[in-house]
Amino acid sequence: MLVTLEGIDGSGKTTIISALQEAYPDAVYTLEPTDSWYGEAVRKSINTDDADPLSELFLYMADHAYHLQTTILPALSNKKLVISDRYIDSRYAYQSTSLDGIVEDPLSYIQKIHQPWTVLPELTLYFDLSPSLGAMRSGSTNKFEQLSFLERVHENYEKIISNDPGRFVRIDASLPPDKIAKIAIKTISNLL
User: Fold this and answer.
1) CB contact set of 80 (below 8 Å; sequence gap of 6+)
2) E strands, the chain, where?
3) Domains in the chain, start-ordered, CATH in brackets?
4) Higher pLDDT, 63 or 10
5) CB-based contacts of 105: which residues, under 8 Å, 6+ apart?
6) Is the overall model pTM greater than 0.85, yes or no?
7) How many other C-beta atoms are found inside a 10 Å radius of the C-beta of residue 147?
């Protein structure tokens, strides 16, 4: 089973991983961008303010393809629980914000490209946080962590969730981390 953790920057996804690792020690834990050279190219683009948004999208997609082939599909074929810190919904929410005004209906454009070859998660935990708190927590250190950008990303997440509500469980990311972890663990246990 594939479980993904999603939310804007600063929503605490990465913080919850250690609690999940205690609860599910045999799961495969992974993240996007990966630690491959594809992921390295993505991280370089994140810190490049004038990176071309369309080229950046395809960097993310190359990293995702690598991630699927080397980590996710092998783990799923071995009947492992896979928990990914960020996955396709991050790309949909963030990159469609970057592509706004460059391609028509960026969210649909990106989803159509992914549809033939990606694996949908069985469960996505969405750590919901106000963009202002997300920007404050993340430190607004790169172009994707700026308040105005996070506001649009948050809106995109809401569109994504409304199109596939059965896959998402919304968790209030302003709660204390221990409460968030308990909710996340219980939600995954209920699905298992």
Assistant:
1) 26, 27, 28
2) 2-6, 28-31, 82-85, 123-128, 168-172
3) 2-191 (3.40.50.300)
4) 63
5) none
6) yes
7) 13
